[in-house]
Design a protein that fits this description.
Blueprint lengths: L8 E8 L12 E5 L2 E5 L5 E6 L4 E4 L8 E7 L37
Antiparallel strand pairs: 1-4, 1-6, 2-3, 2-5
């Protein structure tokens, strides 16, 4: 489990790159929110963002190669009185699917 906050990580963003992933391969990201465990399957083109210093988390054992890009945002969290209440709460994570559009192809120009 990871989340003691001692490394300065405040926010974690994980983008999964696993095409043809099967649930039987395991490798789920497990977030421990309040008294609940929430599992995210590492499906291609999925993004999970969570407070790294507040949400206990772990990666469950996997039977296949699991690929992801992870970005950690570091710094200091503001005191509660500096942040509006609505932004300072940890809410139940939601699964949101975002379809990214490919940029238009550039046509080659002759010299």
């Amino acid at each position: 489990l990871d989340s003691d906050g001692s490394d300065g990580r405040v926010l974690t963003a994980i983008y999964y790159l696993n095409s043809d992933w099967d649930a039987s391969d395991g490798g789920f990201l497990r977030l421990h929110v309040r008294d609940e465990e929430i599992d995210f399957e590492p499906l291609a083109d999925s993004l999970v963002i969570f407070y790294a210093d507040k949400v206990m988390h772990e990666v469950l054992p996997t039977k296949a190669k699991r690929q992801a890009m992870t970005i950690w945002f570091t710094g200091e969290r503001c005191e509660a009185e500096q942040v509006p209440v609505a932004q300072n709460r940890i809410s139940r994570p939601r699964k949101i699917r975002i379809k990214l559009k490919k940029p238009p192809r550039r046509q080659a120009t002759e010299p």
